[in-house]
Task: inverse folding
């Protein structure tokens, strides 16, 4: 396998026409590592992935793929070395899983050769690895949320790129399938040396499966590094407004996050933590 | 689950060319071509004026009397070929625009490209200085460029008004509906301002008809259709990728803006050229790709087989119009197929959004 082309973002500013969503982001990924981006809803994680894959042009700064500015590369060239799975993509009615996954081969095919034994094999492998092979001829719109998510991941895998960007690949997945996806990501890293960037909301899984964590808040990166160094109770409170206990897992020593209950039985909620408890009774009162 | 089903697709590998086609699509397309040939034969060999088969064959092989040639070539073959080409062009154009906008409503006839082309042609017919040159031949050589310019101009106006940071399917539809209404109003206004004779010519052309079309009027549309055929094959997978949304299309190497622009340009030229031949024909571009999508179970409205479906719809409508009492133009019949489908689509839309 050729040397992994690192992806580098330099002082990125980007938005959707109403001010900047990303306010100067620097990031380097590469070297066959798993980098996980965490941060609260709306902080700009998906926007960052879009800029890294040129789906959104930054208003300032630049992104380098193997040292070349993205804006100088052809779309197909980018697609051959970088696959990105957007958050919540939608397939047209009636498109089957196999048809979807086969789309992942497009960047490698000239227009007059849209099928070959090799493409067929890679497509089958991608569906097997994501456990959707049995669903190959089922329409994507008739799958469960988790099956659908895995079909889309299969499409990105079939692209066989050295860089893989996944925006919340575990939403809609049950715990076992979420772990399956992250194990698959780990295998991809270990066996093929791919570099993977993932956006995750589950801090426990993020801590467990990442080589590096990137913590974002309001359009900026506030911390970056190995999970054990980055995660702290203060950081969780500052970035997420989340009061949580952080301790090393007695089995493998990885950081584990346990949120502190703010209400109810056994809740160790101290008063005056700066964030009022979510008062359910208040809301039900207004309904009646 | 899948083990028992027969192979759903055929693979083809010849030299550098590699194809994978769904069986249903291949069989369906071949059947469609056979049906079209059958319709063509029906149109040429039968008609209101009885004529023995051997005389028709004689004419087709270059013989026959002048009157026989008039009946077979001018009254039967030319209108049938016109219906075939116009239907193909409209169906193909509709499949392209519906695919790139991911919206079944976004076909050139509903967006006003057809009425825009029509409005321009009427402007020409009702302008006294040129009306004399045009005569009452609706597919004369002057109408063709007028309709094409009108179609392109209308499409340009729709795009300019709906373009913000990029191509936006929903906005294109909304602006298109408004432009369509404007073009129709403008056409009506021009008709009230012109003299009776011109208005009559214009109204006849506006209702959409393939009768009176000469073989010679079809070359341009035939050439454009052949070009469209190539573009559809070349851009087929990019148009297919756009059905997954612009972002996903870009991630697999499709340049959304470029493909949208080419597809849109081809669709507008096809629509304008067919309007120049047969007048503004409503609902074929809208309904044909949708019929093809359900018939061939494709993921999205297909441009090429949509064209075949369009040709079928037009030829059947032309035959029916020809055989009904009174000389009905085919354009009066196509809304009878299209309008109920539009209502059906609206109903399932309303159900989806309010359910
Ligand atoms: N297409 C868009 N048009 C306009 N504003 C947008 C668009 N997409 C995102 N935004 C805005 O940009 C900001 C960041 O959005 P982004 O999707 O990057 O957040 P995120 O960190 O991925 O959040 P989440 O965890 O909910 O996925 C939000 O305030 C959002 O409102
Ligand atoms: Mg997001």
Result:
């Amino acid at each position: 396998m050729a040397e992994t082309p690192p992806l580098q973002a330099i002082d990125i500013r980007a938005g959707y026409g109403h001010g900047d969503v990303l306010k100067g982001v620097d990031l380097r990924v590469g070297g066959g590592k798993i980098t996980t981006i965490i941060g609260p809803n709306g902080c700009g994680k998906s926007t960052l992935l879009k800029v890294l894959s040129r789906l959104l042009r930054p208003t300032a700064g630049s992104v380098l793929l193997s040292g070349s500015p993205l804006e100088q590369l052809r779309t197909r060239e980018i697609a051959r070395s970088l696959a990105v799975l957007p958050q919540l993509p939608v397939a047209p009615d009636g498109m089957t899983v196999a048809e979807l996954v086969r789309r992942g081969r497009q960047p490698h095919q000239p227009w007059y050769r849209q099928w070959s034994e090799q493409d067929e094999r890679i497509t089958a492998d991608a569906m097997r690895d994501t456990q959707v092979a049995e669903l190959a001829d089922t329409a994507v719109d008739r799958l469960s949320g988790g099956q659908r998510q895995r079909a889309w991941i299969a499409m990105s895998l079939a692209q066989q790129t050295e860089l893989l960007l996944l925006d919340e690949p575990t939403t809609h997945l049950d715990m076992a399938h979420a772990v399956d996806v992250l194990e698959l990501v780990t295998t991809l890293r270990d066996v093929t040396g791919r570099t993977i960037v993932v956006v995750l909301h589950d801090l426990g899984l993020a801590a467990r499966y990442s080589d590096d964590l990137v913590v974002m808040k309001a359009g900026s990166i506030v911390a970056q590094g190995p999970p054990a160094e980055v995660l702290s109770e203060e950081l969780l409170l500052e970035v997420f407004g989340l009061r949580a206990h952080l301790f090393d897992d007695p089995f493998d020593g990885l950081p584990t996050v346990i949120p502190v209950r703010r209400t109810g039985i056994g809740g160790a909620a101290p008063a005056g933590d700066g964030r009022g408890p979510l008062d359910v009774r208040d809301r039900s009162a207004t309904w009646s | 689950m899948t083990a028992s089903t027969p192979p759903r697709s055929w693979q083809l590998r010849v030299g550098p060319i590699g194809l994978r086609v769904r069986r249903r699509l291949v069989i369906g397309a071949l059947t469609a071509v056979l049906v079209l040939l059958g319709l063509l034969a029906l149109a040429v060999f039968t008609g209101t004026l009885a004529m023995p088969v051997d005389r028709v064959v004689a004419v087709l092989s270059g013989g026959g009397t002048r009157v026989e040639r008039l009946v077979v070539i001018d009254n039967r073959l030319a209108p049938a070929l016109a219906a075939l080409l116009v239907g193909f062009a409209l169906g193909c154009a509709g499949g392209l625009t519906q695919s790139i906008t991911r919206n079944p409503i976004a076909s050139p006839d509903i967006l006003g490209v057809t009425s825009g082309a029509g409005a321009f042609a009427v402007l020409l017919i009702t302008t006294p200085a040129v009306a004399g040159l045009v005569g009452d031949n609706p597919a004369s050589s002057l109408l063709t460029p007028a309709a094409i310019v009108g179609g392109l101009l209308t499409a340009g106006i729709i795009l300019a008004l709906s373009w913000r940071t990029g191509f936006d399917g929903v906005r294109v539809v909304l602006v298109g509906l408004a432009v369509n209404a404007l073009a129709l109003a403008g056409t009506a206004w021009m008709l009230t301002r012109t003299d009776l004779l011109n208005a009559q010519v214009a109204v006849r052309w506006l209702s959409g008809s393939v009768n009176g079309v000469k073989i010679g009027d079809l070359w341009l549309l035939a050439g454009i259709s052949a070009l469209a055929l190539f573009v559809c094959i070349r851009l087929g997978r990019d148009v297919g990728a756009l059905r997954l949304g612009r972002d996903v299309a870009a991630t697999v190497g499709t340049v959304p803006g470029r493909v949208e622009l080419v597809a849109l340009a081809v669709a507008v030229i096809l629509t304008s050229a067919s309007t120049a031949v047969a007048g503004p024909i409503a609902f074929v571009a809208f309904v044909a790709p949708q019929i093809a999508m359900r018939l061939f179970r494709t993921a999205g409205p297909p441009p090429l087989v949509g064209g075949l479906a369009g040709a079928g719809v037009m030829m059947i409508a032309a035959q029916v119009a020809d055989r009904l009492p009174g000389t009905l133009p085919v354009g009066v019949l196509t809304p009878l197929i299209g309008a109920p489908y539009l209502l059906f689509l609206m109903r399932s839309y309303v159900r989806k959004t309010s359910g």
Q: What stands out?
A: Residues A 45-46, 87, 167 surround magnesium ion (ligand 2) (CB under 6 Å). Residues 267-288 of chain A have pLDDT under 50 and may be disordered. The domain at 7-232 of chain A is CATH 3.40.50.300 (Rossmann fold). Chain A touches chain B at residues 17, 50, 53-55, 75-76, 78-80, 83-86, 89-96, 99-100, 102-104, 106-107, 109-117, 119-120, 134, 136-137, 156, 159 (CB under 8 Å).
